[in-house]
Structure formats: C-alpha cells, structure tokens
C-alpha cells in the first residue's frame, strides 16, 4: 500500500508495506493511484516519493515471481514510465536501502535525495536476473557506463556518498529526511522538467563504449563462476542502452534478455537458494521440537581450546561479535604462536581499512590467552578445536565437564567424529553439541551445528543463536560420520581419485567441475585445505596403511593416491606441492606436476588398471552424482530434514554453484530424478565394490514418482 497526503502544495506518496516496503502489486497500484491524484489536483506542484518505516522500497516482491503477480498491471515498468513522464516534478526521498526495483523507481523520478546512511544497488544478479524494470537503461544515463556496469554486474550496495559522487543521487543529507525533501520539492517546483527525465539523457561514456564493454566482458568471464548466465547477460542489456537507437528500443531488448534469464532455470535455482538460506534457521527436530519453542541461553563469554587453524578463526569470529574469549593451547609456545596469528588477522583488517585502530584494540581486549582451564568455570560456551582424534577429544571433554559450571555448553568443532561418543564421557550429554565451522572460520559463512541423541533443545537453540550472532548461516543436522557436509564429500573425493586411477589427471577432473561452476576443482580445493586433514581422518578410521590389499580397505574400493602424496610431504599449497605444483610454499597458482602424473600412471600400471580417455560427462557424473546419491541418503536417514539444509551446506561450505541450486535442487529440478537415478544404477552395476553407488531408497522412490507424474 501507499499513503497519499498533500502538504504545502507538495504531494507525498509514502510506501507502506513492512518490513522492507517490497514493491508488491498493491504497492505499485498505490503509487499509481497517488500519482493520479497528484496529476488531477491542480494545487499540487511537486511530488515526493518515499518509504515509511525503516526503508525506501528495498526491492521487488520476490514471492510474486513464481505466482506471476510481478507482471500483473501496473507492473514496475509501467510505474517507472509514469514517473518518468509525469508532468510535475517527482522527488525520490531515500532512506534505508533502495535496491533493485526500489532504485529503478528512484531513477525514474526527476530528483533523488538521500540520507547519508542510505544505500542503493541492483542485487538482481544474485538472483540470476538483471534489473529488468528499466534499470539497465537508466543507470548508465546518470552515471558513467563503466560505473553502471560495475554496480549492476557486481550487485554490490553503494553508500549514499559514493552514489552522490557517481551522479546517481543529487543531494545527500543528514538528519531528518522528510522535511528536507518537502522543502526541496517546493524549491524545484516550476523548473523545466525535460532535462531531468533520465529516459531522455544520453548514455554517459558512450564514446569509449566498445573498450569498456570488452574489458567488462573479460573481467566478468574471469571472475564469475562457470556457466552463470546473469552477469554476462547484464552486460548485454547495458550494451543495448548504447546500441539501440531509442530508449524504448533499449527497453525492449532489456525485456527480452530478462525473459531469457527468467526462463533459463538458473534464476529459479538462485531464487530457491535465496529462500533456502533464510529457511534453514527455522530448525525442527523429528520429535517436533523446534526453534519456535526452544529458548537460547545468552552467550557472552566463551572458551576456545586449540589455537590452530580453526581455533584462531573461531576466536576471531567470536570476538568480532563482542563475545569475550579465553583461548588455550597445549603449551605456551603454541599459544603464543596462535595469539600472534590472531593479532596478524586483526592488523591486516586495519591495513585494509576494515577496522580502525580503536576497534582493533577493542577486539584484542576481548581475548584472554590462558594455559589452564581455571577461567573456564564460568564461561557460557566452550568450543573445542584440537586435533581430530577421539581419545584426545574425550579426555578434554571429561576435564571440561569436571571444571565448567553445569550450565556451560560444550561444543566440538570436529569435522567427522561421533558427537554422542564425545558426549558420553560427560555428565551433561544434554549440553554437548557439534559446532562445525569451515576454514577460514572467521570468513566462511557456514556453520553446521550437530545435535546428538541427548542434546537438549536449549543447547541446540543456543548453538543456532550463537551462529546468528556471529553472522553465520547456521544449519542444524543430525549426527553421523561427517554429518552432512563431509559425508557428501566422501564419495565425491573417492570418485575423483578413482578417475585418476582409471585414466584422468587432476586438472582434467578439476576442469570439468569448474565448467559446471565450482570456483575450484576438488583437487585444488583439497590442496588449499591441506591434504593432511583428510589423511588424519582416514588414519583415525584405520584406513591408511590398514589391513587388506592396497586397493581394498574394509571391503571397499580404496584409493591410496592421496595418502602417497602426504607421505611424500606434499600437503598442498602450504608446502608448495600437493596434487599440483605451486612453485613455493604458500603459492597460489596451480601448475600440473609431472611427478604426480608419473605417480598416477605407475599406480595404474602396478595394479593392472588399463588407463583410458574418460569423457567429461563421465567425470561429471561420477564426481557429482555419487555426491547427490549420498545427499538423498542423509535425507532418507533424517540426518538432514529438508532439501534446503543439504543444499545450503554445499553452497556455503563447499562452493556448489548457487545458480545450480545445491545438489538436491539440481538433481530434482535441473536434471530430473529419473535420469539421475538411472545413471547411479548404471555406475552401481559397474562399480559394485563402492558402497556409495548403492542407490538411495528415497531417490529411487522419488524418481519413480517424478516418472509417473510425467506419464
Ligand atoms: P590444527 O592442527 O591446525 O590445530 C589443532 C590445535 O590444537 C593445535 O595447535 C594443537 O597444538 C592444539 N591442541 C592439541 N591438543 C591440545 C590440547 N590438549 N589442549 C589444547 N590444545 C591442543 O587443526 P585444525 O585444522 O585447526 O583442526 C581442529 C579441529 O577442527 C579438528 O577436529 C578438525 O577436524 C576440525 N576442523 C578442521 C577444519 C579445517 O579445514 N582445518 C574444518 C572444520 C573442522
């Protein structure tokens, strides 16, 4: 809805659709009704358009995309056209965030005023779309073409001051917006409108257009994930502003490109991911207990045990959100080393101007390094991040249980180990929970929280709440080896290694995955994480150098190739060599390594495996369909309760391309379950010695439902 009032010959149209004043059908109709009244009232000399509550309209109503309501008249394009051609001056008064459709409205008015704290932007690219209600044609008419491309293709939010410098906003104010906007509207009443209509302005920088577009295309191709259509299509739409003879023709092209994206499937996948991300915080246990009833405990102080890779990242995430942290290590040398690393993270934040000196000091003051557990007795939460070893973790949990206040929650950052077994050594299994962070823990957005058999709703609610407080996307899952994220990683990694044994080299496998949209292939990813991590886990499971022939461990096909690398000191990027050669320890550019290729070829020869050229489609299916099959198994077992949980974990923790929706979404909606199931059965018929090819019962059932619904 939008309210209408007249104040000193200025009409005020105020959008009122909490919480973010999304431009739903009734809002668009409200704006049109207001404009009609302002046009017909001869006493009105100017119009101010604003948002009530906390923001200017912050975008389209995404729920209307699926229902078709987005195109119901008056659609946003008609509202923009009406504003642009309005016979009286219209002033946009921007506070909060004018995003997407909100910014398109602003660019259709004749003057744009904003509070200093306001932000504008076109986030459509993140939903697989482009600003399709005239945004791609208007923005390059108020700011230089190169800026318009940057803003639309990146989807970034631009602060009001920068927007003013770029020409997007005409005036920036502090204080109370509305009186200033009304005063401004009175001051411009009667001025000629023609030069203020954005549709009639020339594109800024059109003389250098071909060079600008060429550079933008190159940059976009190198930056955006493989196969993502939206960024490059955004550029094509902006190009229409330069190439089409009229504004109207440019709009037609924008509409065609918007339709292309809308029908591509990627936009639907990205919109699904958008809602999935918001839905995962609404957790529910199979028993029916849920976020609605469970109350979190307040967490103001925490202890972190282990100042290694994860402990430092976790401490940084906690102190950055104002939680006081006691950090401990097994000895002073390691503790000092950890504190030094953390200090380094903070000072690099200062260098990059993300933190002020004062903020940096404040963060360090929240950290207390300690060499014993005395100070842990009264903390609200302990997060253990020591080596991935069950006996060590049990020893620590026993000690914590005896020292900590009975109300303290004890969390483990284990990436695979059984939470119930860890909890069993304490007298408070209800207070034990898994909090699985991803590396680097202060950067990665995902937190996979794991509940055990006895974890209480209050403990779960607290773990989820802490995640929210430290700005993570928290997903709650059940307990099994590797939980959801690493459990799906298992078959993916195994198949990648089997592909090497049968004929591929690491770069061929990685290339197929990057074409699909992963930023890094599986071998590049494990080189970055450190090959020793997986090695330690396999050792813990008794797989490394275990009994039985080398290629079979625990009655399953096993590839020892990764173990060989670790045993040769090739731990990945940190040692300069892993699956690839990085030139030097800490190097980032992966180069293929003839030594690794020789090792692989010799392995195949020794074990009588005839190497063959493996087609990209087979590389793709064996890597990803094995993972998808495991995804359906975790759903079937109730480890994850919804598709969204699996999908969000893989998007945020493992780089599954967002425009491919997540493994379960991709299988269901982008390939189709009957086909996925058929291919899994095919590989199962060939690779009987790999349990991960046994088709999921749930997948089988759902595939047959999809088949019969199509008949
Ligand atoms: P790390 O080896 O970098 O750090 C472990 C630290 O724990 C070492 O500094 C070690 O000195 C310390 N430590 C060992 N025993 C201790 C004790 N009794 N008291 C205090 N400190 C002790 O290992 P990382 O990578 O940080 O892993 C820690 C945990 O996080 C493991 O359970 C791992 O599975 C898990 N994890 C690791 C991820 C990764 O990517 N590195 C990702 C997610 C979870």
Q: What proportion strand?
A: 5-15%
The termini sit apart by 44 Å
Are any ligands bound, and if so which? 1,4-dihydronicotinamide adenine dinucleotide
- When the domains are counted, the total is 3
User: What is the count of helical runs?
Assistant: 29
Mean pLDDT: 95
Rg to the nearest angstrom? Answer: 28 Å
Structural class by sheet pairing and helices: alpha/beta
Helix content: 40-55%
CATH superfamily of the largest domain: 2-enoyl-CoA Hydratase, Chain A, domain 1
Secondary-structure arrangement, i.e. CATH architecture of the largest domain? Alpha-Beta Complex
The largest sheet, given as strand count, sense and whether it forms a barrel, is: 8 strands, mixed
With strands numbered from the N-terminus, the spatial order across the biggest sheet is 12-11-10-13-14-15-16-17
Describe the structure.
This protein has 711 residues and is α/β, with parallel strands linked by helices. It has three domains: 2-262, 2-enoyl-CoA Hydratase, Chain A, domain 1 (Alpha-Beta Complex); 301-484, 3-Layer(aba) Sandwich (Rossmann fold); 486-638 and 672-706, N-(1-d-carboxylethyl)-l-norvaline Dehydrogenase, domain 2 (Orthogonal Bundle). 48% of the residues lie in helices and 12% in strands. It contains 29 helices and 19 strands. Helix 4 packs across helix 5 and helix 5 (135-142) crosses helix 6 (145-154). 47% of the residues are buried. 1,4-dihydronicotinamide adenine dinucleotide is lined by residues 305-311, 328-330, 334, 385-388, 392, 396, 413-415, 436-439, 529, 533.
């Amino acid at each position: 809805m939008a309210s209408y009032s007249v104040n000193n010959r200025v009409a005020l149209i105020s959008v009122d659709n909490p919480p973010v004043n999304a431009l739903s059908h009734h809002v668009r109709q409200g704006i049109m009704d207001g404009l009609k009244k302002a046009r017909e009232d001869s006493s009105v000399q100017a119009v101010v358009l604003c948002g009530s509550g906390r923001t200017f309209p912050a975008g389209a109503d995404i729920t209307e995309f699926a229902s078709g309501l987005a195109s119901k008249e008056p659609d946003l394009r008609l509202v923009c056209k009406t504003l642009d051609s309005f016979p009286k001056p219209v002033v946009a008064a921007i506070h909060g965030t004018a995003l997407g459709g909100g910014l398109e409205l602003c660019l259709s008015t004749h003057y744009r005023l904003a509070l200093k704290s306001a932000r504008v932007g076109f986030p459509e690219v993140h939903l697989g779309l482009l600003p399709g209600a005239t945004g791609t044609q208007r923005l390059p008419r108020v700011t230089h073409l190169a800026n318009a491309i940057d803003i639309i293709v990146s989807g970034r939010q631009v602060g009001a001051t920068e927007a003013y410098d770029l020409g997007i906003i005409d005036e920036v104010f502090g204080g109370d917006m509305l009186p200033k906007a009304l005063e401004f509207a009175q001051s411009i009443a009667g001025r000629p409108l023609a030069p203020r209509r954005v549709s009639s302005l020339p594109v800024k920088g059109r003389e250098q257009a071909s060079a600008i577009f060429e550079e933008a295309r190159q940059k976009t191709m190198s930056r955006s994930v493989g196969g993502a259509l939206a960024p490059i299509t955004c550029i094509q739409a902006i190009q229409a502003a330069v190439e089409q003879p009229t504004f109207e023709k440019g709009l037609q092209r924008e509409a065609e490109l918007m339709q292309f994206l809308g029908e591509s499937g990627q936009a639907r996948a990205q919109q699904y991911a958008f809602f999935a991300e918001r839905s995962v915080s609404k957790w529910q246990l199979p028993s029916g207990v849920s976020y609605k009833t469970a109350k979190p405990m307040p967490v103001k102080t925490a202890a972190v045990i282990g100042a290694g890779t994860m402990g430092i990242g976790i401490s940084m995430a906690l102190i950055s959100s104002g939680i006081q942290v006691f950090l401990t290590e097994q000895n002073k040398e390691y503790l000092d080393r950890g504190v030094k690393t953390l200090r380094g993270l903070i000072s690099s934040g200062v260098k990059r101007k993300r933190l002020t000196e004062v903020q940096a000091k404040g963060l360090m003051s929240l950290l207390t390094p300690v060499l014993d557990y005395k100070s842990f007795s009264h903390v609200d939460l302990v997060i253990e991040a020591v080596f991935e070893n069950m006996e060590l973790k049990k020893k620590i949990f026993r000690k914590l249980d005896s020292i900590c206040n009975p109300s303290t929650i004890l969390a483990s950052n284990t990436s695979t180990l059984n939470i119930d077994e860890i909890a069993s050594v304490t007298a408070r299994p209800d207070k034990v929970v898994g909090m699985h962070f991803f590396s680097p823990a202060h950067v990665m957005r995902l937190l996979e929280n794991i509940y055990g058999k006895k974890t209480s709703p209050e403990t779960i609610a607290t773990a989820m709440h802490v995640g929210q407080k430290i700005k993570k996307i928290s997903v709650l899952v059940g307990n099994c080896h590797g939980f959801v994220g690493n459990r799906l990683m298992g078959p993916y990694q195994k198949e990648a290694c089997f592909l090497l044994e049968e004929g591929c080299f690491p770069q061929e496998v990685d290339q197929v995955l990057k074409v699909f949209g992963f930023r890094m292939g599986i071998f590049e990813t494990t080189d970055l994480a450190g090959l020793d991590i997986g090695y330690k886990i396999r050792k813990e499971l008794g797989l490394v150098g275990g009994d039985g022939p080398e290629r079979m461990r625990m009655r399953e096909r096993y590839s020892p190739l990764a173990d060989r690398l670790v045993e040769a000191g090739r731990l990945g990027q940190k040692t300069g060599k892993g699956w690839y050669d990085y030139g030097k320890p800490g190097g980032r550019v992966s180069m293929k390594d003839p030594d690794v290729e020789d090792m692989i070829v010799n392995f195949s020869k020794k074990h009588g495996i005839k190497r063959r050229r493996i087609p990209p489609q087979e590389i793709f299916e064996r890597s990803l369909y094995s993972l998808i099959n495991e995804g359906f198994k975790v759903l079937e077992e109730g480890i994850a309760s919804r598709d969204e949980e699996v999908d969000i974990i893989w998007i945020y923790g493992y780089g599954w391309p967002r425009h491919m929706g997540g493994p379960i979404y991709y299988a269901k909606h982008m390939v189709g379950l009957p086909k996925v199931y058929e291919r899994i059965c095919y590989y199962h018929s060939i690779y009987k010695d790999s349990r991960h090819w046994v088709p999921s019962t749930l997948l089988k059932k759902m595939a047959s439902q999809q088949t019969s619904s199509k008949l």
